[in-house]
Amino acid sequence: MAKARPTISTHVLDLETGAPAASFPVALFRLGEDGQPELLAEAETDGDGRVSSLLEGELLPGSYQLIFDMAAYLEEADRDPGFFENMAVGFRVDDPGRSYHVPLLLTPFGLSTYRGS
C-alpha cells in the first residue's frame, strides 16, 4: 500500500453554532525567500468543516500562511459580521515528510488555533 503524500489540511469549527463551518473560505500561501507570499491554493471547507488537502504539489520546507476569511463565511450564512474579518496563521514546515493539520475554532469575539494531528 502506497504511503499518502504529505499535505496541509484544516478543520474549522463554529463554536457559536456548535457545528462545523461548512463553505468556509481558506487560502494557503508559501512565503518565498524574499518574504513575499505565493498563493498555492484557495478552497472552501466541506460539509464537515474540513479541507483534507490544500496542496496539489509537493510539500516543501519553509514558511506558510493560512488565511481564514471569516467575513465571507458570515456573509454567506446571512449572519451579522463578527469582530474579526480574517485570520492569518503563519507556521513553519521543517519536516516535509509528514502532514500538517491547522484547525481553527471560531467564536464572534475570539479565535483559536493549534497544531493538530
Q: Can you summarize this structure?
A:
The protein is mainly beta and about 120 residues long. It has one helix spanning about 70-75; strands spanning about 10-15, 20, 25-30, 35-45, 50, 60-70, 85-95, 100, 105, 110-115. Strand 3 and strand 4 (about 35-45) form a beta hairpin.
Protein model, in words:
With 117 residues, the protein is mostly beta strands. The chain has a single domain, classed as Immunoglobulin-like. Helix content is 6%, strand content 43%. The chain has one helix and ten strands. It has one helix at residues 70-76; strands spanning 8-14, 19-20, 25-31, 37-44, 50-51, 62-68, 87-93, 100-101, 104-107, 110-113. Strands 1, 2, 5, 8, 9 and 10 form a six-stranded mixed β-sheet that branches. Strands 4-3-6-7 form a four-stranded antiparallel β-sheet. Strand 9 and strand 10 (110-113) form a beta hairpin. The longest helix is centred in the middle third of the chain and has 7 residues, at 70-76. The model has no long low-confidence stretch (mean pLDDT 93).
Sheet of most strands: 6 strands, mixed
Provide the succession of SSEs: EEEEEEHEEEE
User: Helix tally?
Assistant: 1
What is the CATH level 1 assignment?
A: Mainly Beta
Relative strand content: 35-45%
CATH topology: Immunoglobulin-like
Low-confidence residue ranges? none
Cα distance, first to last residue? 21 Å
Shape type: globular
- Provide the number of structural domains: 1
Q: What structural class do you assign from the helix and strand content?
A: mainly beta
Radius of gyration computed on alpha carbons: 14 Å
Mean pLDDT: 93
Number of extended strands = 10
CATH superfamily, please? Transthyretin/hydroxyisourate hydrolase domain
The share of residues in helices is under 10%
Write the CATH architecture name.
Answer: Sandwich
